[in-house]
Amino acid sequence: MSLRESYALHKKAYLTAFSLLVILIGVYYYRNRPKEPTYTTASVRHGDIHATVQATGTINPLTTVPVGSYVSGTVKYIFADFNTRVRNGQVLAQIDPAIYGAQVTTARGNLQNAKSNLTTLQANIDVDSANLAKARANLAYESAAAKRQQDLFAAGIVSQDANQLTQSTMGQAQADVNSAEASVEQAKAQLAQARSQVVSMEGNLKAAETSLKYTTIVSPIDGTVVARNIDVGQSVAASLQAPNVFTIAQDLTRMQVYAKTDESDTGNIKVSTDVTFQVDAFPSQLFHGRVSAVRLDATTVQNVVTYDTVIDFDNPDEKLLPGETAYVTIPTGSVTNVIEIPNSALSFNPDMPRTDIDALLKQYNISKEASATHLGGWQLVWKIGPAKQPIPVAVRCGITDFNNTQLLEGDVHEGDALITAEINSGNPSAQKTPGIGGRR
Description:
The chain is α+β, with helices and mostly antiparallel strands. The protein has helices spanning 3-31, 98-155, 160-214, 263-266, 343-346, 354-363, 368-373, and strands spanning 38-43, 45-61, 64-68, 73-78, 85-86, 91-95, 216-218, 223-228, 235-236, 244-249, 254-262, 274-279, 282-294, 299-301, 304-314, 325-342, 378-384, 390-400, 404-410, 417-424, 427-428.
């Protein structure tokens, strides 16, 4: 090959490579040129909206009574087990009564001794009272004799020695009276103490008999045993508080659901509202109940505040059991033949600078405060304008079913296309899930 032919060949190769480079650069710039965003839309239409609150709860009996033991001891017999149906007053268990029987026997003996002592003191006071009466009679006699002697002495009939002897005898009689009165008072005090001792012994006997009675554990209501916490031979300690040995559900044919409802939903829940719920045990069956109360005792877990919404329901076949999880649907509102705004349109925000959004809000006379805070229930939706640009529209919304929201006010009509998502450079804009009332 000559030098000229070699030069021509190299020149042709360079030109080819240069042409390919220009083509590749052109393709790159073509593919990465700025693109106008495209939007997905949803049509506005008329329809019915049924707002509900979804909650999870636990099934509970209407009344659950814990049965405790008021005395300590060893469990000797058990007469009821799990799921046993019991009647009011039926014996459930027996604690060994030996110790408490001995205490009753001792208390009865102490009471008998106290009564015997009372009887003895009563007899003694009768004797002392008789002695007091005798001493008083003797004093009266000696007083009369002393007065006669004094009169005779004054008349000069008896000597002074005789008169003095009579007066001394009267003084001794007075001393005997004082002694007898002291003995009577002492006997009365002993008698009062003995009577108090009898009352105390009667109290001790009653306490011992009550403790003996409590060794027999009985059911306080008609119901079903749902928990048994003791076994034969187990020691029960009731020194500080009564231990729970049985739990009895009063009536399993009428039960309740305690549904945990969010604080934002409680204002929409009304007492006597008919509700539906499901359980895992019967996933294809729908159960019905009615709201009886929204309890005021709030529960806060990780800054989430919930309230117990109590739902009463009948359970005639006892299919549903205490402790089962219930998935509750509570109606909170219903409207028919209204304009529905897709919730995805309420959650849409255009991908543009904030200054551009503010300019559009000003252009279409929309309050920035209303658009930012949903003041008075106002929110924003976006239409596509003639120049393919998004146009803001202020709307005031009502209830929602989590898919569509009721339109109360705003320049939105049936058949309008509202933007629900934006596609820019192949990446769809993120969509937020609206909350209750179409909140974003």
